[in-house]
Design a protein that fits this description.
Blueprint (H helix, E strand, L loop, with lengths): L1 H80 L6 H10 L6 H6 L9 H8 L9 H37 L4 H7 L3 H8 L6 H12 L2 H42 L2
Length: 258
């Protein structure tokens, strides 16, 4: 009889101790899981704030680039429409006061690249941090922004650059003395022209006259206007997708802070 009671007591004790252990493990697991979720949430908020700041930086860059391109577009449209009847005095004045927004060199010799400060958003894809973001819409918009919209925009910017480089090669191969005079410059001259530190009225006017005499000059401008249209189109699409991402990130951060 005692043996049976002893066995029963032992069995109850075993059940109790086992239950305590299981409960302890469960509580420990729950605490660890809760802490892990809290840590992941903290990291996600930090990540979203970093993306938010990066978006603001990109928007400033895009606005600045858009203003320059739009101003240059207006000048290109005028020159194209009035190639045989250019008001040299007016255009020369515009180029003299345009800095690097409206300049002869940027219009016919140099080119505009597109390098938004997008390193923060790029890095979260490369290092796997994107997985910490729980909102799938944000993840999809980030991927679409980089892999589609930025890629399409850069492809068209590259096409415009290639066009301008081909025109430069044609100028380099020219024996025309007026063209040689256009290309001849120095570091000091470029700085003085961009920062309006000296009067280059006559040289700017002579540059316009020399380019105007080239059939390739008019053709180049026409092709550049065509290519610029697509640059502006994809720039606008990039801006729209960036704004969508910004709104999604702002909304997610607002929910996280409730």
């Amino acid at each position: 009889m005692n043996t049976i009671n002893d066995k029963l007591k032992f069995f109850k004790k075993f059940i109790f101790e086992t239950s305590v252990i299981i409960i302890g493990i469960s509580i420990s697991f729950w605490l660890n899981n809760t802490q892990a979720k809290a840590e992941n949430s903290r990291k996600e908020i930090q990540l979203l704030k970093a993306v938010q700041l990066n978006i603001n930086e990109i928007e400033v860059y895009v606005l600045n680039r858009e203003e320059k391109l739009t101003a240059e577009n207006e000048l290109m449209d005028y020159l194209s429409a009035n190639w045989n009847n250019i008001n040299y005095d007016s255009v020369t004045k515009v180029l003299l006061t345009g800095g690097n927004t409206k300049s002869f060199h940027n219009l016919f010799l140099d080119y505009r690249e597109f390098h938004p400060p997008i390193s923060e958003i790029t890095s979260i894809i490369e290092d796997g941090s994107l997985a910490l973001i729980s909102n799938n819409e944000i993840k999809l918009k980030i991927i679409s922004l980089l892999d589609n919209h930025l890629e399409f925009l850069n492809q068209n910017v590259s096409s415009e650059i290639a066009l301008q480089q081909e025109f430069r090669i044609a100028l380099l191969q020219s024996d025309n003395q007026e063209i040689k005079a256009i290309l001849k410059t120095s570091q000091n001259e470029l700085r003085e022209r961009f920062y309006q530190e000296d009067d280059f009225t006559e040289k700017t006017r002579s540059e316009l006259l020399a380019i105007n005499k080239l059939n390739s000059g008019e053709n180049y401008l026409s092709l550049k206007i065509r290519q610029r249209f697509f640059v502006m189109y994809y720039l606008d699409a990039f801006k729209s997708k960036l704004k969508e991402l910004e709104e999604e990130v702002n909304a997610e951060l607002a929910l996280k802070h409730k």
